[in-house]
Amino acid sequence: MKKLIECVPNFSEGKDMSIIKQITDQIETVEGVKLLDVDPGAATNRTVVTFVGTPDEVIEAAFLAVKKASQLIDMTKHKGEHPRMGATDVCPLVPISNISMEETVEYAHKLAKRIGDELEIPVYCYEKAAFTKERRNLAYCRSGEYEGLPEKLSKPEWKPDFGPAKFNARAGATAVGARDFLVAYNINLNTTSTRRANSIAYDIRERGRVKREGNPITGKIVRDEQGNQVYIPGSLKEVKGIGWFIEEYGIAQISLNLTNISVTPVHVAFEEACKKAQERGIRVTGSELVGLIPLKAITDAGKYFLRKQQRSVGVSEDELIKIAVKSLGLDDLKPFNPKEKIIEYMISEDHSKKLADMDLRSFANETASESPAPGGGSISAYVAALGVSLGTMVANLSSHKRGWDDRWEEFSDWAEKGQALKDELLLLVDEDTHAFNLIMDAFGMPKSSDNEKLLRTKAIQEASKYAMEIPFRVMQKSLESMEIMKAMALTGNPNSASDAGVGALCARTAVKGAFMNVKINAAGIDDHAFVTNLLEKGAAIEKMAEEKEREIVTIVEQKIKELAK
Question: Tell me, what's the pLDDT at 524?
Fold first, then answer.
């Protein structure tokens, strides 16, 4: 697995797209890097760019982008709503996969040093890359903003971490950091008042607001023994925020940075904003995401709002996303395209034609063609997916049945389990064909030399084992799905009992069909212990599936008789 890091530089230009295009063109010149998102803001005069790739390549792309920005953006002429101190204001690195935060910090320091040495731009390292406790906070590093840099750089305590302690009038200064995944999230208000938006942001953000004596607005600021301002904490942890007016939309917004969405998820921030806004006579009209967001953050939001409605959360990923978008008002200001805003969708490199993505007719035609794949293993997985989909349907119908309102959560839990099994079985549809292709590739390897023969034999053995493991996994998941069908036959909507029965028949068929594939792929495998183990376990699963099928069919037939009375 490749190491992947994300880079999210913020450039102090949000109006002239020709400048932004020249900067992003530099990023796209680097092989191994994928540009994911370019999000300009006219009022903030700032563009957030997101790209991902292997570490060395990301560092190269980031450096080229910072260099081009320093050539094209003149900070002596810059004005915008967002705090800033340089042409490239911030450039954080985020570990995405197979890389630790410690390694990411090393890459951040490598990038910061290169910017300082080669471009002569003062660089402050923040968040996890900071060298001092104070500089972990980006707001502290950026204090005084661009206009305060000449005086700031003259003070020893503000010596940059990299680069000269000298004012670069054109490029300003840059903050380079390493941090966890941050969600930049703006909440729209039905007011034009920046002061009121700020008040709501202070209510919410972790830092809160300055404490004052008497009048909370005009009273004297309270200070501690060291002379530092005392703050009243806000209601949400791991949240930074301010309020501003966005001229292009004609509204005020609360601009939040959610620095740890496992502590404060997007939907929690949204709900808290709604609550605090209402207390001040203001209404939240929607929200917007700046940059990208993890898939789980969106699906968790969809589940949250469904649970509020006492509705089943056992629905498809697409449905959860749709509920989240509508509930959060993510399409309030402009269309929200999940394919362009969810990071997993953006970094997916698998553009191959998938069986599970075909329509029914195309899938049947592909199966009926002269190609040996998809074969019985893929079909078994697909039959199992259809079976558990039926069980899940009964669970969802039961959760909405009139008079069963107090049981919605019980059926929602079953439906959620069913959705998870369905999704895994659909993956196994394609994985079984992939396993077959691995065997064909192995047999096609060269065998001229003794070494090549050894490598070929090893590849055939490993591919054949994998071709046994995939249908065995189908057997396991199919048997597991029968628990859902049994529960729905017993306790679900009686009018849908036959659907649970058909689901059980599909699952049994899948188990027996997949076991045939386990057995046929065992031929030629030299590891007899491996083969014996899988065949014994497979036989046990087949027997249990047959027993479950008889049990469920008996229950269903009884339900049908009761309905006929």
Answer: 82
**Could you say which of 37, 39, 430, 432 is catalytic?**
432
What is the rounded CA–CA span in Å between residue 471 and residue 545?
15
Point out the catalytic residue in the list 39, 82, 161, 499. Answer: 82
Tokens 């046929």 locate to 520
Residue 1: pLDDT band with limits 50, 70, 90: low
By the 8 A CB rule, do 123 and 116 touch? yes
CATH class of 183-347: alpha beta
CA–CA separation, 143 vs 134, rounded Å? 12
Q: How does pLDDT run across 232-256, given as a tens digit for each residue?
A: 999 999 999 999 999 889 999 999 9
DSSP code at position 353: P
Would you place residue 127 in the very low, low, confident or very high pLDDT band (cuts 50, 70, 90)?
Answer: very high
Q: Could you count the other beta carbons within 10 Å of the beta carbon of residue 42?
A: 15
Q: How many residues does the chain have?
A: 565
400 catalytic residue (yes or no): no
Q: 48-104 pLDDT, tens per residue?
A: 999 999 999 999 999 999 999 999 999 999 998 889 999 999 999 999 878 999 999
Please give the pLDDT value at position 498: 96
Is the link from the previous residue into 374 a cis peptide, with omega within 30 of 0? yes
Question: Whole-angstrom Cα distance, residue 8 to residue 285?
Answer: 27
User: Would residue 59 be called left, alpha or beta, if left means φ above 0 and alpha means ψ between -120 and 50 degrees?
Assistant: alpha
C-alpha span between 149 and 85 (Å, rounded): 8
Name the residue with tokens 């079985």: 425
79/84 Cα distance (integer angstroms): 9
The C-alpha atoms of residue 227 and residue 225 are separated, in whole angstroms, by 5
Domain ranges of the chain: 4-178, 183-347, 356-564
Domain 356-564 - what CATH class?
mainly alpha
434 is annotated as an active-site residue: no
Calculate the average pLDDT of the chain: 93
Give the integer Cα–Cα distance in Å for 389 and 491: 17
Question: Do residues 238 and 258 lie in contact, with contact meaning Cβ atoms separated by under 8 Å?
Answer: yes
Q: What is the pTM of this model?
A: 0.77
Pair of tokens at residue 134: 């104070």
CATH number, span 4-178? 3.30.990.10
Taking the C-alpha atoms of residue 249 and residue 76, their distance in angstroms, rounded to an integer, is: 27
Q: What is the distance between the alpha carbons of residues 113 and 94, in angstroms, rounded to a whole number?
A: 18
Starting from the edge strand earliest in sequence, which strands make up the sheet with 284-290, in order? 239-246, 251-258, 183-189, 284-290
- For residue 95, give the 3-state DSSP assignment: strand
